[in-house]
Amino acid sequence: MTDRTLAVVTAGLSQPSSTRLLADQLAAAADEALREIGVTTQVEIVELREHAHDLIDNLLTGFPSPALGAALDTVLGADGLIAVTPVFTASYSGLFKTFVDVLGPDALTGMPVLIAATAGTARHSLILDHAMRPLFSHLRAVVVPTGVFAAADDWGSGDGTATRALADRVKRAAGELAPLIAAREPRGPLDPFAVPIPFEQLLAGG
Amino acid sequence: MQVGIFSVGDVTTDPTNGRTPSEAERIKAMVTIALKAEEVGLDVFATGEHHNPPFVPSSPTTMLGYLAARTERLILSTATTLITTNDPVKIAEDYAMLQHLAGGRVDLMMGRGNTGPVYPWFGQDIRNGIPLAVENYALLRRLWREDVVSWEGTFRTPLQSFTSVPRPLDGVAPFVWHGSIRSPEIAEQAAYYGDGFFHNNIFWPMEHTRQMVALYRRRYEHYGHGQADQAIVGLGGQVFMRKNSQDAVREFRPYFDNAPVYGHGPSLEDFTEQTPLTVGSPQEVIERTLAFREEVGDYQRQLFLMDHAGLPLKTVLEQLDILGEQVVPVLRKEFDARRPAHVPEAPTHASLVAAASATASQGATTGALSR
User: Domains in chain A, please, with CATH?
Assistant: First the structure.
């Protein structure tokens, strides 16, 4: 039986992408860390590349296509989120930001979030703390202390030290995310139409 | 079933020839379109209210008063009346006057307006949209229903022993619809008062419309106005028709691709699939519209948007001919055949007067018995 749902949003564009590779490693590590504390997890991957056109359409029309709507519901209804973007021009990619814009201002309030990013070189690693963390803080998400950044070097060069160091960071971040997810009541599907504000309350000023 | 049209009143360049109508042409075109609506047998013409370019209808009762004099049967309505930025006192006066001039052929659809800069032009703040809609409408109802009103609220100066004139025709306020696309609070407001709820679903997926209408119906019953399926529901619609589907698609595509709201976005095909937009034969429009009922239940008013995206007047009038001759008679017949007897028609001035006098005579009888 599934106890919790973990959404994994990945904004890589190439196939295969190192962004997706990192997302998969983080998801597997989080799944493992949750299992160790007695929680089974359903992992749902959202590949933003598949929704690129629909995201722009959503900006223009104000509503999501059925496929994008399902992806948004996956994130809205999840108990935790792993968000992974490639670095484009000194920040998260435009595609990644567009998805966050479309999610809306209240979607991630209180949600445990693990932030991660990929780039060609380690010189971009501060993106996690100067771009990703403020973005999710603005959305009132609960961002775990360890962010995971992977540069080309981390995927395997030289003696393997870098690869092992990446694996350690993945494990540490997942270990921080898991107890936050386990501590929350399962969110379940959202229904904005379920409990309206009674009109007497609206008449009384709110 | 009432079937009609609503106009946003936008001045939009025709993308096929680059021609932009003048304000004068557009205003005259709106009048011509409304007169055509009566000629082809439609029930309702509703005008938008906007206070910024590229829209012309800033003064709805001026236009509707003129139309009242030139029509016999058409119900004159709004889509929408800005309950947020208009003074409710002026709405009460203007529409009571219109009601007298039009012999009761008037109702209104309340809306908030979603253009941020408009609010401060009228001394308001868009962040107060819902509270303004709630307070202003509560006052408007009292102004129409009570001869002398003393009132104090948040958004306008207090009223001391104020009488809004003229009093509503036959002592019965115009029927009110509340229009909202995505605010459950407005569905709640419509339900609380037992007013109509209009979902202008033309730019939105039907699934969303279904949920908003279901909420309104559930709360209508909760507030004791009747069963959920007796609530008064209206829907928007957007169609373009030619005898052959392919011709309709070919002719409409450039207008779709450049339309102010959704242009340069999703394809015509995607948008047709995801929203109520129907581009095709009259038979396809009939089938699509009848299918709305399966989503929202038996409903009372269907308004189509026909004059937008820069379509030339000649084309709009042709569309209205097709709508009146081939679509509306079938829709009326089919909707009426499907509607159970206990589900009411949309209220009209005549039905509201009859209901009021029935209540009054019932009250008199009860009073006599108790004595």
Answer: 4-203 (3.40.50.360)
